[in-house]
Design brief:
Blueprint lengths: L5 E4 L6 E10 L3 H8 L9 E6 L5 E10 L9 E9 L1 H13 L3 E2 L4 H8 L5 H12 L3 H11 L2 H25 L10 H30 L1 E7 L5 H9 L17 E7 L2 E7 L9 H16 L2 E7 L12 H13 L7 H6 L1 E6 L9 E7 L2 E7 L8 H11 L13 H22 L4 H19 L5 H9 L6
Helix pairs in contact: 4-5, 6-7, 6-14, 7-13, 13-14
Bound molecules: guanosine-5'-triphosphate and magnesium ion (MG).
Guanosine-5'-triphosphate binds next to helix 8.
Length: 469
């Protein structure tokens, strides 16, 4: 597969002033002569006709030739920049295929760049993330990763791990001799520095993952609490139908919004109640599923049902407010886990003439955030927005690295192993155990940049790219 010449239209489909056909392969001299009549001088703009089978001119434009290894993919790359019409670009592509190229799979150019050592895996992923970025902050963090800042941090962690492994493994080799090769106190300090570095990089990656993927926020509660009204306030659009009839929303409605560059997937759900209506029952089942997979649950409550709430909600008020969630919990579900993701929205405060406010209340072992607002008139929404950013500890993404769940999982695995090495050292466990901890930690970190990565994972990563990238 990797020996074949590949080609693809690299510009977005549709009409455009310019369209680009990109070709990459081991040797493109013949291809260039057939397509543009000559092999263009390396890396210089060459104005020429693009030729069809019988020498007919398909288009006229600029050809760029990047001979291996000084190209994006590390192979010969020929780029034809012509006019951005669908038919003309398809004719050029068909011509390249007739000359021996094949249509590239999504992300195949980037995959070759990775396989040829031009970029590592995080940089390749950052290319896709930069293209998909839907805020400036997300784009900036993708560029930071693309230019290698994240990879450099990962490499410095890898080299620290290598040094530690050498130290520990040579101590194992010399364990029979009288030479004292291992300074345990020094090793403990080094391991704790390593853990600090891992913690720092994890937080920057987590910020990047927030910017990149955002969070799912579910609006849940009794019928008529004002969930759909709140969805419309947050999104600034009248997406959801609002009526005074309980049971208006029956399906799950989803909308993506940006909260100061933080992407939120807002999910409005059917009011939680037991109903004889088949459609409503299904709506409630879907609401439950959305609640289960939400990063944050906003439990919307009608404040007029709690007339005393001006002075704060009592313990029994809180219990009653949480009932709709409790009622629909399945046996064996972890209630505290769900409550930790839950914030209470006291809506319709206009009915009690209250002002918007954000407060906290202790409930069992959990500290619940309570936001009082009026979704009907969109008053107090800023408090809710600030709370949501606070809830996920979003810091504005200033120095975030664009990151994916797989990076964070790998960093977490390395942190666990590093913690285990520290414990093993403290309990004077055999050095072999510490060596093994460090080996696994290094393998986890290596998966991030693609040093130790399976073909399946590579296939999955690159298949989500655009064609021509
Ligand atoms: N006074 C007042 N009424 C509100 C407020 N928010 C919503 N309402 C009204 O409450 C009623 C129900 O609002 P919805 O947003 O449809 O409530 P819901 O929770 O989506 O209801 P279901 O879809 O039936 O579960 C509507 O008549 C709204 O106009 C508010 O802040 N103050
Ligand atoms: Mg609704």
């Amino acid at each position: 597969m990797h020996d074949q010449t590949i080609c693809a239209i690299a510009t977005a489909p549709g009409r455009g002033s310019i369209g680009v056909l990109r070709i990459s392969g081991k040797s493109l001299d013949d291809m260039a002569v057939n397509l543009v009549g000559t092999v263009p001088k390396p890396r210089q703009a060459h104005f020429c006709d693009f030729l069809g089978a019988d020498g007919a001119v398909l288009d006229r434009g600029i050809a760029f030739f990047f001979p291996a290894p000084n190209s994006f993919t590390g192979e010969d790359v020929l780029e034809l920049q012509g006019h951005g019409g669908r038919v003309v670009l398809e004719s050029l592509c068909e011509r390249a295929i007739a000359l021996g190229a094949r249509q590239a799979r999504p992300g195949e150019f980037s995959e070759r760049a990775f396989l040829n050592g031009k970029i590592d895996l995080v940089q390749a992923e950052a290319i896709a993330d930069l293209i998909d970025a839907d805020s400036r902050q997300a784009a900036r963090s993708a560029v930071r990763t693309l230019t290698g800042e994240f990879s450099k941090r990962i490499q410095s962690i890898t080299s620290l791990l290598t040094q530690l492994r050498v130290l520990v493994e040579s101590a194992i080799d010399f364990s029979d001799s009288d030479i004292e090769v291992l300074d345990a106190e020094q090793l403990r300090r080094n391991l704790s520095d390593l853990l600090d570095s891992l913690d720092r990089i994890r937080e920057r990656s987590r910020q990047g993952a927030l910017l990149n993927q955002g969070i799912n926020v579910v609006l849940a509660g009794l019928p008529n609490a004002g969930k759909s009204s709140l969805m419309n306030c947050l999104s600034g659009q009248q997406t959801a139908i609002v009526t005074e009839i309980p049971g208006t929303t029956r399906d799950v409605l989803s909308q993506r919004i940006l909260l100061d560059d933080l992407p939120l997937q807002l999910i409005d759900t059917a009011g939680l109640r037991r109903s004889g209506d088949l459609i409503e029952q299904e709506g409630v089942r879907r609401a439950r599923a959305a609640i289960d997979s939400a990063d944050a649950i906003l439990l919307v409550v009608d404040a007029s049902l709690f007339p005393g709430c001006a002075d704060g909600l009592s313990e029994s008020d809180l219990r009653r407010a949480l009932e709709p969630l409790d009622d629909f919990m399945e046996n064996g579900e972890d209630r505290n886990e769900m409550l930790r993701r839950t914030s209470l929205v006291l809506n319709k405060i206009d009915l009690l003439s209250l002002s918007p406010a954000a407060e906290r209340a202790q409930f069992d072992d959990i500290e619940l955030a309570i936001i009082r607002l009026c979704a009907g008139n969109c008053i107090g929404i800023d408090l809710l927005a600030a709370h949501l950013k606070d809830f996920v500890a979003y810091e504005g993404g200033e120095d975030a690295f664009v990151a994916r769940a797989r990076h964070i999982e790998a960093i977490d695995e390395a942190r666990r192993q590093c913690g285990s090495a520290i414990e093993n050292l403290a309990s004077r466990a055999p050095l072999e155990l510490i060596a093994e901890d460090l080996r696994i930690a290094q393998a986890s970190i290596g998966r991030i940049t693609g040093e130790f990565t399976s073909d399946d994972l590579l296939g999955e990563i690159f298949s989500n790219f655009c064609i021509g990238k």
